[in-house]
């Protein structure tokens, strides 16, 4: 089961598998209380990637819920503030500025998603080095692999200004097609049907 929790910055999802609860992504800093209230307790907090709008509340939330934070090992250095993402263009400069004001709370400890045995984790690099998608039944939580436009809410690809490697990104778009999901749960915007995703890819490839 995948459920949306209202939060600022990005979509935060509650995933329940075999009675175990997981939180996927945490939004900007300041979301920890409302997520904790909605979830009460959880097995772990999983980050689809280390961008500021997804990891912003992870540290505070892990303290409240007393749970571990999981991510792909290729995201660890970014989550700990050792490495910085490169954003491009004007929108990239704006994002960097915004991030510097909001002061990310970097993580002290992160566990590898490989330890999560009851979830199917798919490495989908490109948007960032260690971006992941999570398959839950017929639903694929895909982080920023695809998103919806702010005003029209139509599905679209993530901006090149924020992507780490465009070639890898395209490869990951094709990679997820091999999995049998019906619904995509993106990091931003509404749920996307598989047909919509396939239509989107036809325009790219
Ligand atoms: Zn992102
Ligand atoms: Zn995002």
Fold and architecture overview:
- The chain has 205 residues and is an alpha/beta fold.
- It has a single domain, classed as 4-Layer Sandwich (Metallo-beta-lactamase, Chain A), CATH 3.60.15.10.
- The protein has 7 helices and 13 strands.
- Strands 1-2-3-4-5-6 form a 6-stranded mixed beta sheet. Strands 7-8-9-12-13 form a 5-stranded mixed beta sheet.
- Helix 1 packs parallel to helix 3.
- The radius of gyration is 16 Å and the shape is globular.
- The termini are far apart.
- The site of one zinc ion has 7 residues, from helix 2.
Structural class based on helices, strands and sheet pairing: alpha/beta
Mean model confidence by pLDDT: 96
Number of helices: 7
Q: What strand line-up does the widest sheet have? A: 1-2-3-4-5-6
Based on CA atoms alone, the radius of gyration comes out at 16 Å
Task: Say which CATH homologous superfamily is assigned.
Answer: Ribonuclease Z/Hydroxyacylglutathione hydrolase-like
Largest sheet: 6 strands, mixed
Order of helices and strands: EEEHEHHEHHEEEEEEHEEH
Name the CATH class.
Alpha Beta
Proportion of beta-strand residues: 15-25%
Helix content: 25-40%
Shape: globular
**Uncertain residue ranges:** none
Task: Provide the fold topology.
Blueprint: E1 2-5, E2 12-17, E3 20-24, H1 32-39, E4 44-46, H2 52-55, H3 58-65, E5 69-71, H4 76-79, H5 89-102, E6 111-112, E7 120-123, E8 132-136, E9 139-143, E10 146-148, E11 155-157, H6 166-176, E12 183-186, E13 192-193, H7 194-204
Helix pairs in contact: 1-3
The structure holds zinc ion (2 copies).
Domain Metallo-beta-lactamase: 9-188
GO molecular function: hydrolase activity
Keywords: Hydrolase
